[in-house]
Design goal:
72% of the residues lie in helices and 7% in strands. With 332 residues, the chain is of the alpha+beta class.
């Protein structure tokens, strides 16, 4: 029994003893600890100078808000344009004069069976003449005609996935090649112009974002450069004690990341605040033109992208500035 008790006490003591960790695990823990300390130390340093931090973050926020705001406007326009495509992409098939009404009905039935077509409407020559009389106001002049010159028409509405300008144009060529069709017409010129303008605006937003991103890098880099100059003596002492450039670089890099992140938050507040203030008047204006246009706020993914872009630009700007100016600070 005593031997068993001794063995039990030894096993309990062995379990209570701290586990030994390898050098690789201890090195990883120290590495993470140093990064966390630098992360929160840089945040504390920015909090101790709130006015200067707010001014720098506001400059970054305005730079990020411009492309983000234009992106939100273009996203709203593209949403409305996508709805217009389904409603306005109609193909008019003008049938040959020799086509009888039963042949036109058979063609319409065949077209309704196509997966590219969602609806087909038949307009007889008599209906077409009556609509032309109402729209033109030439009833008296048309009464002198010996025969109806207008052909029968099939109005084809493409399915949603075939209602874009390129897909609708391809469908137009296929329908125009049918033997019963004399000619076909697709009135999407204005929608193609809208797509071209939106595409140009999207590219302009990307170019603007690139230029402003360079501006953010310069702002953060200049701020970090001033911080290095102000702490020059401290950096010299730390280098004399054996600190590496990576150890010295971390607080500055994380400080730049915090600047960018705060700037992203300000950009989101500015953009969504402006969109909310303009949403009511924009909806009233759209209602006068019987349009469903409405300003959409930045979604969750867009917000994450703005915050991530701000933090990444701040980090990159700080890293470039520290790598450039830290070499100039050497012990004498």
């Amino acid at each position: 029994m005593k031997r068993r008790d001794g063995q039990g006490q030894e096993s309990e003591a062995a379990r209570a003893a701290p586990r030994k960790t390898g050098p690789r695990q201890r090195g990883l823990e120290n590495y993470l600890t140093h990064h966390l300390r630098a992360l929160f130390a840089s945040l504390g340093q920015l909090v101790r100078t709130p006015l200067a931090t707010l001014m720098i973050a506001a400059v970054i926020g305005i730079a990020l808000a411009l492309p983000a705001g234009f992106h939100a406007l273009l996203a709203s326009v593209q949403t409305v344009a996508a709805g217009w495509e389904g409603d306005m992409a109609q193909i008019s098939l003008f049938l040959k004069p020799t086509i009888k009404e039963d042949q036109a009905a058979a063609l319409a039935k065949r077209l309704r069976g196509m997966r590219e077509v969602t609806a087909v409407r038949y307009i007889s020559p008599q209906q077409a003449l009556a609509e032309f009389e109402l729209s033109s106001g030439l009833r008296d002049a048309l009464a002198y005609l010996n025969e109806n010159p207008l052909p029968a028409v099939l109005v084809v509405r493409p399915a949603e996935q075939y209602s874009t300008p390129s897909a609708a144009r391809d469908l137009l060529h296929r329908l125009e090649a049918m033997t019963e069709v004399d000619s076909a017409q697709l009135d999407l010129a204005w929608l193609e112009r809208l797509h071209a303008m939106v595409g140009l605006a999207v590219r302009g937003v990307w170019l603007l974002a690139g230029v402003l991103a360079v501006g953010v890098l310069l702002v953060v880099g200049n701020t970090i450069r001033l911080g290095i100059q102000n702490r020059r003596e401290e950096i010299v002492v730390i280098k004399l004690l054996g600190a590496t450039d990576g150890f010295i670089r971390r607080p500055f890099v994380y400080g730049g990341m915090w600047y960018g992140l705060f700037g992203g938050v300000i950009a989101l507040l500015v953009v969504n605040g402006l969109l909310l203030s303009l949403a009511g008047p924009a909806q009233q204006l759209a209602a006068l033109y019987h349009s469903g246009f409405r300003l959409e706020l930045l979604g969750g993914l867009a917000c994450v992208i703005v915050l991530g872009a701000g933090a990444a630009l701040g980090w990159l700007g700080a890293w470039l500035a520290v790598s450039r100016h830290l070499r100039d600070v050497e012990p004498v």
